[in-house]
Specification:
The structure holds two protein chains of two kinds. By secondary structure, chain A is of the alpha/beta class. Helix content of chain A is 27%, strand content 25%. Chain A has a single domain, classed as 3-Layer(aba) Sandwich (Rossmann fold). The longest helix of chain A has 15 residues, at 163-177. Chain A is globular. Chain B is mostly helical. Chain B has a single domain (2-270), classed as ABC transporter involved in vitamin B12 uptake, BtuC (Orthogonal Bundle). Chain B contains eleven helices and no strands. In chain B, helix 2 runs antiparallel to helix 3 (61-81) and helix 9 (197-209) runs parallel beside helix 11. The chains are: A alpha/beta, B mainly alpha. Chains A and B meet through loops of A and helix 6, helix 7 and helix 10 of B.
Chain lengths: 242, 271
């Protein structure tokens, strides 16, 4: 299998504080990895390290066996939907077009395709600020898709979105996953578990299993407090019987 | 009515209104969408130190103002890129320090500074031809810089986190934006004065924001709104024999409040 991302013994300190401690993980093409962990556990820092925005103090990150800075084109990044200015005068179509901001020209066909894929074509002339949370999240996914990335990174895609909308976002991501490697971080264990193919737990250190099963012990170690596991019956069982 | 157009100072005042509106519409729109009003106020008031220095050195105070406001915007950019936690306090200090330096410089200057008030509160009727030329040059710079960097300025002011992630040098473009604010402040000093600059940077753009779906349209509308408000204020001040800068601000504020109430009534009706 083709290795998309290699994180090798990565340690990151920010302002003298240890944020990531010797992280090792490889992600292969067309995998769907969910990284869970408490707030402040280093999830966003890990994403930034993969994007090459933060250089590790030790260890290295390779994207398709290359430096992350050279591979930004191949990574689509979806920030939390509340990352942007809400009152900004900009239509959905113009936001998606922002995915071409570093290119000289924009590809109209790709623009339409990306909006079609996430089902927002009918919203193209609406102001971004007038959309619901789930719709905004879809717009940001479309923006990441226009540049035809090979890897999609998502930061808390279902934070402050109701569970039904969250489900439709995950179903969309499953569809996108057919042609793309996906990594998403979330502190929402319940929602993430039914859809991703692999789960890693991150709290400074990373506990990672090749299968998708997570034990109560691992979660408790990650969250440093007792965690109640609620196993969802659909579509496949994630957690141990308990 | 038409006889007032025969005066050269009135014609200059009309030119100055249009030139100020162009810069205000462009830069003010970015200030409003990104809520940079306080930073703009800081840059404007720091410029007063430059006005004082200009008096002391016997050069046109506007040149001193350009120098000080560029230093102020550079300082704010550095604080921003370093994510300085006390940025707010430091801008406040810079704000006061600029004013204090200005007053010290002026008190050290020989003689009396008769048109000092015009730098604080503006006197559009006293704009000279040299200053008109200076405003034209500053406008050309502002328009050119924004046109060249428009897509990136839009990206960083809309979604900074994403812009950074895809590799845009966000700090560089914020620096450019702050420099543009500095140039606009200087351009506005003669029209409404340092103390009232914030109003002209924010009011036309804020009114425009109510009626637009794109920052490009927001800018063009804000320019026309700015011209309208300034000319209305200018003629009222002429006929009422009141200070021009203050009348322009009062007219603008009333226009803003009227639109604000109209919008909130409209919103309530929709519900």
């Amino acid at each position: 299998m083709n290795r998309a991302i290699e994180i090798n013994n990565v340690t990151v300190r920010i302002d003298e504080q240890l944020i990531l401690d010797q992280i090792n993980i490889s992600v292969y093409s067309n995998e769907f990895l969910g990284i869970i962990g408490p707030n402040g556990g280093g999830k966003t820092t890990l994403l930034k390290t993969i994007l090459g925005l933060i250089g590790p103090d030790s260890g290295f990150v390779k994207i398709f066996d290359d430096e992350p800075e050279n591979q930004r084109r191949n990574i689509g990044y979806v920030p939390q939907y509340n990352s942007f200015e809400k009152g900004y005068p900009i239509t959905v179509e113009e936001v998606v077009k922002m995915g071409f901001v570093l290119d000289k020209h924009f590809d109209k066909k790709k623009l339409t395709e990306a909006m079609e894929k996430v089902d927002i074509l009918n919203l193209r002339d609406k102001l971004i600020g007038n959309l619901s949370g789930g719709q905004k999240q879809r717009v940001l996914i479309a923006r990441a898709l226009v540049s035809d990335p090979k890897i999609l990174l998502l930061d808390e895609p279902t934070a402050s979105i109701d569970s039904k909308t969250g489900k439709s976002i995950y179903e969309l991501l499953n569809k996108i996953n057919e042609s793309m490697t996906i990594i998403l971080v979330s502190h929402d264990i319940g929602a993430i578990s039914s859809y991703v193919k692999k789960i890693a737990c991150l709290n400074k250190t990373m506990i990672y299993h090749d299968d998708k099963e997570i034990t109560k012990e691992i979660l408790e170690k990650t969250y440093e407090c007792p965690v109640d596991l609620i196993a969802h019956g659909v579509p496949h069982r994630v957690f141990h019987n308990h | 009515m038409t006889e007032i157009f025969e005066y050269e100072f009135i014609r200059n005042a009309i030119f100055a209104s249009i030139l100020a509106s162009i810069a205000c519409g462009i830069v003010g729109s970015f200030i409003v969408v990104k809520r940079l009003t306080f930073i703009s106020g800081g840059i404007a008031h720091t410029a007063y130190g430059g006005v004082g220095l200009g008096y002391l050195l016997g050069i046109n105070p506007l040149f001193g103002a350009i120098f000080f406001s560029l230093i102020a915007s550079t300082g704010i950019s550095v604080m921003r890129s370093k994510k300085n936690q006390s940025e707010d306090t430091l801008i406040g200090i810079m704000w006061a320090l600029g004013m204090a330096l200005g007053i010290i410089f002026i008190s050290l200057s020989p003689g009396y500074a008769p048109d000092l008030m015009s730098y604080l509160f503006g006197n559009i009727l006293a704009v000279s031809l040299l200053e008109i030329y200076l405003m034209i040059i500053l406008n050309i710079i502002i328009v050119a810089v924004v046109m060249i960097n428009f897509k990136k300025l839009q990206a960083i002011t809309f979604d900074e986190e994403y812009s950074r992630a895809i590799g845009i040098n966000v700090d560089k473009y914020y620096f450019i934006l702050y420099l543009l604010i500095a140039l606009t402040v200087v351009l506005l000093i003669k029209v409404v004065g340092i103390i009232l600059v914030i109003a002209l940077l924010s009011i036309p753009a804020s009114i425009s924001l109510n009626f637009t779906k794109s920052i490009g349209r927001m800018i063009t509308n804000a320019i026309f709104i700015g011209v309208g408000l300034m000319l209305l204020g200018l003629f009222l001040s002429y006929y009422l024999n009141l200070p021009s800068g203050s009348v322009i601000i009062i007219v603008s504020s009333i226009a803003y409040l009227l639109i604000y109430f109209y919008k909130s009534i409209e919103k309530r009706r929709e519900k």
